[in-house]
Design goal:
Keywords: FAD, Flavoprotein, Oxidoreductase. The chain has helices at residues 18-30, 69-74, 132-143, 155-163, 185-196, 278-282, 325-328, 377-395, 469-478, 486-489, 496-499, and strands at 7-14, 36-40, 44-53, 59-67, 78-82, 85-89, 94-97, 102-110, 114-116, 126-127, 147-151, 168-172, 207-211, 264-267, 272-277, 299-303, 308-311, 313-316, 320-322, 341-343, 354-356, 361-363, 410-415, 418-424, 435-442, 446-453, 456-463. By secondary structure, it is α/β, with parallel strands linked by helices. It folds into three domains: 7-113 and 323-406, FAD/NAD(P)-binding domain; 116-199 and 242-319, FAD/NAD(P)-binding domain; 417-499, Enolase-like, domain 1, CATH 3.30.390.30. Helix 1 runs parallel beside helix 8 (377-395). It is globular. The structure holds 2-acetamido-2-deoxy-beta-D-glucopyranose.
């Protein structure tokens, strides 16, 4: 059957985000003679810059938006096709684009990313932030806002509530503590004062404590909240594609209409019951509003804790959904519960010659006991890079093993202006009841938590300039029995680095 194919490429990558672009770079540099196409809707692509390997598994980089021609200049055998994907016909190995063209592929990698779950579709008072455009729209609306409600407890919410100034923020989180995806209650407690104070107070003396936390409910689903501000404004998934960089708010002043600086009130353990307009409020007499709602607001939000808040607008930051839609129709992809494309340890989906990387996929290989998938920039880069290597290896019939970066979960970020390092099962994820936590906390300075299981270190949370990441990474990787050293591990008077040299 003739599908009117314009051209067949050896490799086609869909998506101009970090996973897709990294995959293209890897393929094109490993096989410069390969015919590669990148299909992406927007004029810009996301590129990793200033990449730095901090330790064995920790990496730091920035994300830059660049015109796609930069990639084509670097890789003469790369073609960038500017269109969204309309459909995929796996049987004939073809892709149709929204602008009516048809392309063939020998191997395809889907890197279409994810989009935010929006609380309400088509509600002008509910915003998400996904790309630079929507961040700017947010900034514009914020400039006139006196009060906003932020719903969600992932990375975007954490950054937003901290960055927004001059506007009252009501922050609704479904958990008992803020930042539940990244922190336990202790770390949240450490961070809370940053929301209230403008300047850090003087550090209090070092304090050591040891405790065990509540177990997560058995079989509690792992939440895949992305820490990376990938909020959309209800846009079609394949439209503009890529999410913001990790420092998206730098250079964008998030200031509201009020002279106050930080004013955040956290509403714990609640979700959204209802969103309604001012008119709807007037016609529902049973609705009682507290004194915090004097005057009229354009929109009201009722939380499941019974409270209702009027506000200028609502920011929906409640996690992401993989962008799989245009690829599914007529095909047989195996999906996971979180709606991601299942991939094996070679980043291959269940369809022949089709790989996937980044937010759109769910890692379904048998994970290392110290790794978990989270839809983060770091993992998008790692998966894109590894997928590219796998595609080349398969073409050349060379063996390839799961990359070392999937041995240990590691992530560096910044929350509330503190450096944050997360290692391994930093929140005791999936561990039984017999794990132990060691904690050291100096108010306004550092928070260090170590997760021990059977005497071995399996995870750590490091907030502040602790300088412990490399030592702890090594202790986690070598799985040394730390029972004899338990008392010394977090002793601030012992240089732990020398200790294990
Ligand atoms: C592009 O591919 C052709 C073969 O298809 C090859 O001869 C050429 O060297 C490649 N260009 C670069 C810059 O590698």
């Amino acid at each position: 059957m003739d599908h009117g194919k314009e051209k067949t490429f050896q490799f086609v990558i869909v998506g101009g985000g970090i996973a897709g672009v990294t995959c293209v770079e890897q393929l094109s540099s490993q096989m410069p003679s390969a015919d590669v196409a990148l299909i992406t809707a927007g004029p810009h692509i996301k590129a990793v810059t200033n990449y730095k390997q901090v330790s064995k598994t920790l990496e730091e980089f920035e994300v830059e938006e660049l015109p796609s021609c930069v990639l084509e200049e670097r890789f003469p055998n790369l073609t960038v096709i500017h269109s969204a994907v309309k459909s995929l016909i796996t049987q004939s190995h073809t892709i149709k684009t929204a602008d009516g063209r048809v392309f063939g592929y020998e191997k395809l990698c889907i890197c279409s990313g994810s989009r935010p779950k929006l609380l309400a579709q088509d509600n002008p008072y509910v915003l998400g932030i996904r790309d630079t455009d929507s961040a700017q729209a947010f900034q514009k609306r914020l400039a006139k806002a006196k009060r906003i409600v932020v719903v969600g407890n992932g990375g975007i919410a954490l950054e937003l509530v901290y960055e927004v100034e001059g506007c009252e923020v009501i922050w609704a989180v479904k958990d008992k503590a803020i930042g539940n995806t990244f922190f336990d209650a202790g770390a949240a407690q450490f961070l809370i004062p940053s929301l209230e104070a403008d300047k850090p107070e003087r550090a209090a003396p070092c304090k050591r404590l040891r405790y065990t936390t509540e177990e997560p409910a058995a079989g509690a689903p792992q939440t895949f909240t992305a820490d990376r501000n990938s909020m959309a404004h209800g846009s079609a998934p394949t439209e503009s594609g890529s999410a913001l960089g990790p420092d998206w708010h730098e250079g964008i002043i998030l200031r509201g209409a009020e002279p106050v600086s930080h004013r955040v009130s956290v509403q714990y353990e609640c979700e959204v019951a209802k969103i309604f307009t001012c008119e709807e409020l007037l016609t529902s007499p049973q609705q009682k509003l507290g004194p915090e709602n004097v005057g009229t607001w354009p929109v009201y939000i009722q939380l499941t804790n019974g409270k209702t808040f009027g506000c200028d607008f609502i920011v929906s930051a409640t996690g992401v959904v993989p962008n799989t839609e245009p690829f599914l129709h007529g095909n047989n992809f195996a999906l996971t519960d979180d709606a991601g494309l299942q991939v094996d340890d070679h980043m291959m989906t269940s369809e022949p010659d089709i790989y996937a990387a980044g937010d759109v996929c769910t890692a379904c290989w048998k994970h290392s006991p110290l790794w978990q998938q989270m839809r983060l920039w770091t993992q998008a880069r790692q998966m894109g890079w590894y997928a590219g290597r796998c595609m080349v290896a398969h073409v050349l019939s060379e063996p390839i093993e799961l990359d070392f970066c999937f041995e240990l979960f590691s992530h560096i970020t910044k929350f509330f202006n503190y450096k944050v390092v997360l290692l391994g099962k930093y929140n005791g994820q999936g561990l039984g009841p017999d794990h132990e936590l060691l904690v050291r906390c100096t108010k306004d300075q550092e928070y260090v938590k170590v997760v021990l299981s059977g005497g071995k270190m399996v995870g750590a949370v490091l907030i502040g300039e602790t300088d412990l990441e490399e030592t702890f990474e090594n202790l986690i990787l070598n799985q040394m029995d730390l029972t004899p050293y338990r008392e010394e591990l977090l002793n601030p008077n012992i240089d732990i680095e020398d200790y294990f040299d």
